[in-house]
Amino acid sequence: MCGIVGLLMKDPEKYDLLGEYAAKMLEGMATRGCDSAGLAAYTDPAEGNGARKFSLFDPSGNLDWNELADGMREHAECEVDVSAKGNHAVIIPRGAADEAFRWMVENRPEAHVLSVGESVEVYKDAGHPFDIAERYGFSELSGSHVVAHTRMATESAVTWAHAHPFTVGEDFCLVHNGSLSNPHSLRRMLERHGMRFDTDNDTEAAARFLEWRLREGDTMEEAIRAGFRELDGFYTFLIGTKEHLALVRDPFACKPAVAAETEEYVAIASEFRSLAHLPGVSDADVFEPMPEEIYVWSKDSAVVAS
């Protein structure tokens, strides 16, 4: 049993409220999973030609993030911004992101990459969701949309690496409540296509499958429909990209989900209790997403497609 949380703010003037709303929503899902938690926030895009955000994690807590940034500056000959919170950091090389990334991988292998993209910032760790939200300042985040998760482990270890969200490619993330029965066959198929896996978590297999379909040219809806054919098990998926928030449930809809939409936001959680504190929710369009239906909201239009 796990908890999922999603929030998309429709009005850019309300982006500063994203973290405040989402942090309370995440804490409301702590009873569904207190082993670990994580959050992906889509914030202001990195400025500069070729600039990218790297969300990084050091399990030891001993890495000097400023020293790492200095190394990037010297070897990639570019400006580098650093925002560190304990053993997490968001580092933004401006103008030579690929070169800076190669240098980091070769010279600072202890810096684990949680995400790469123009907009996404990822924070995740083992521990109680409330503590993690406080540790990394979730309530202070500003942006267009967020995807978050609380985990109760059932099929793999309790570690920061097994915590959700899982990210693949650029600006793509996925959280999952449920259990897949065929992650190993998916993994073998994707490895034949050159994909490398970081964990034995079934959610990583789903994330890599969907992102692979997107890279092969599928639209979001086409990729998810391919998932209906290939993913075996029970699941509610919440997916984030730079422009979209998407929700899908398996054909049996065994895992709960509820959505609330107002003129101000679209909010999603495993249980209504995580939505109850939101302003205007008493007047919201509240509904239970249907099985095997695809719900996609765009941050620009905030119109649902299914």
Tell me what you see in this structure.
By secondary structure, this protein is an alpha+beta fold. It folds into two domains: 3-40 and 128-298, Aminohydrolase, N-terminal nucleophile (Ntn) domain (Glutamine Phosphoribosylpyrophosphate, subunit 1, domain 1); 45-118, BMC (bacterial microcompartment) domain (Alpha-Beta Plaits, 2-Layer Sandwich), CATH 3.30.70.1710. It has seven helices and 16 strands. It has helices at 18-28, 65-76, 97-107, 129-135, 183-192, 202-215, 220-230; strands at residues 3-9, 36-42, 53-57, 79-85, 88-94, 112-117, 120-126, 145-151, 166-167, 173-180, 233-240, 244-249, 258-261, 265-269, 285-287, 294-298. The strands form three sheets. A seven-stranded antiparallel beta sheet has the order 7-2-8-1-14-13-15, covered by helices on one side. It has a five-stranded antiparallel beta sheet with strand order 9-10-11-12-16, covered by helices on one side. The protein has a four-stranded antiparallel beta sheet with strand order 4-5-3-6, with helices on one face. Helix 2 packs across helix 3 (97-107), helix 5 (183-192) packs parallel to helix 6 (202-215) and helix 6 crosses helix 7. The longest helix has 14 residues, at 202-215. The two termini are 26 Å apart.
